[in-house]
Structure formats: C-alpha cells, structure tokens
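Sample log: ABC transporter ATP-binding protein.
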Amino acid sequence: MNDQPIAAIEVANLRKSYRGRPALAGLNLQLKPGQIVGLMGDNGSGKTTLLKILAGVLAEWEGEARVAGLEPGPESKALVSFLPDASFLPDSHKPADSIAQFTRFFDDFDAKKARDMVDFFGLPWDRNLKEMSKGMREKLQISLAMSRRARVYLLDEPISGVDPASRDVILRGILQNFADDALMLISTHLIQDVEPIVDSVIFLRAGQVLLQGDADELRTEHGVSLDALFRKVYAS
Ligand SMILES: Nc1ncnc2c1ncn2[C@@H]1O[C@H](COP(=O)(O)OP(=O)(O)OP(=O)(O)O)[C@@H](O)[C@H]1O
C-alpha cells in the first residue's frame, strides 16, 4: 500500500519566459507536506518567479504545477498563504486594520493568532505602516501570512530587510506558528540564518534545479554547512 503523503507542491517541466528570455527552464519538483524547504539560488535564478506561479499571481506559464492538489488559481489561493517580497499593505493601515482586512479576505485566518504575533514581535498598535520601519512592516506581514491555517506557505525573502537579532525573532515566530502537516517554501539569500529551521533545500540556477535534498543528508554528505555548500556550488 502506498502511504506516502500526497505532494503539497508538484511541478513538472515548468517554463516561464519574460519577453522570450527564460526565467524557469523546465523545472521539476515534488515537495511533501510536513516540512520547511529553503529555496535558494543566485540572483535571477527564478525563485520569485516560481513562488508567484505557485501563488497564482503570475499567468502565462507552461508545464504543470499543482499546489495543495490544485492548479494555481482562485481556488488554490484559499489554501495557500503567500508572502510576496514587496510590501502589500496600504500605508494608512495600522495593525488592527490589516488584521480586519485579512479576516474579511481569508476564511482560514486566525485574528487572535495575528494579534498575539503582533505582540510577540513588539509592534506598535498605534502606528500605521508609513510610520513603521522596514523591519516592523516585515514583521507585520509575516504575522498576517502565518496566521492563516494554510496548507502551503510561500514566503519570498521574509527576513531580507531586518537586523540579525530580528531575523532570529522572526524565524522563531514563523516556527511557533507553523503546523506540522503544512509545507513551507521559503526563499532567501540568508542561508546561514534559515539553516537551523529548514528540513530540506532546493538550489536553483538559471531556472532549473541545480541541487536538492534533505538538509542533514547534504551536510553529512558534503561535510559542510548549507551556507558553505551554497558558496562552493555557486563558485564553480
Ligand atoms: N517582470 C519581469 N519582466 C521581465 N523579466 C523578469 C521579470 N521578473 C523577472 N524577470 C527575469 O526573470 C529571471 C528570474 O527572476 P526572479 O525574480 O524570479 O529571480 P530570483 O531568483 O527571485 O532573483 P533574486 O535573487 O535576485 O531576487 C531574471 O532573469 C529576471 O530578470
């Protein structure tokens, strides 16, 4: 009997070009639920493009893609929590306004959890986004994205703009709010920072998978950290 869990993300021969230039060049992936996967790669390797396709916000691609068992689109968006790399909240919003908006938009949103995360991050309830620092805005966006009970979380560079101490706090916040049976795909250049929380990694180069595997197995096989392995692989 096959008791393997169904892949939470399945991608076959996925291709996407921008004005004739390939960003994804025949990508194949099968990711099971119950893990945090680090999506890594050099600039322009296709990380954001992949996340946007899976999130259902980018059209006109070729090949096959399924997320939480569905083709990316309006239905899958109800099961997938996407944190884009750019700010997506209005400047005028205070945390309570954004929480109210997410409550209206998403059936799986847990407003109490979001409020607890805002407190956990020590964010000011009386300041709007325009009055917050970049790191504060990122923390608010993460609070919202992680307070959905989604099957799949797609986080694009969630800790790029924050200081090292805040990165640890954010990663702890993410971990605390991550259900065991969900899948998280998290893109980042800050490999050293996310290394302690990822179960497996995907290295992309030029729109294809260069290397993929279980984090512990890769560390054992190569005898170095993922950060060192990344530097070695991309230097060659
Ligand atoms: N809107 C767009 N129009 C044209 N080309 C684009 C567009 N978005 C991305 N590209 C191109 O697609 C390729 C992949 O870009 P993508 O943003 O997916 O890479 P990335 O791995 O996320 O990069 P980075 O690490 O720099 O954020 C790049 O060559 C980029 O120039």
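Observation: The CA atoms of residues 31 and 211 lie 14 Å apart.
Observation: The first helix runs from residue 47 to 55.
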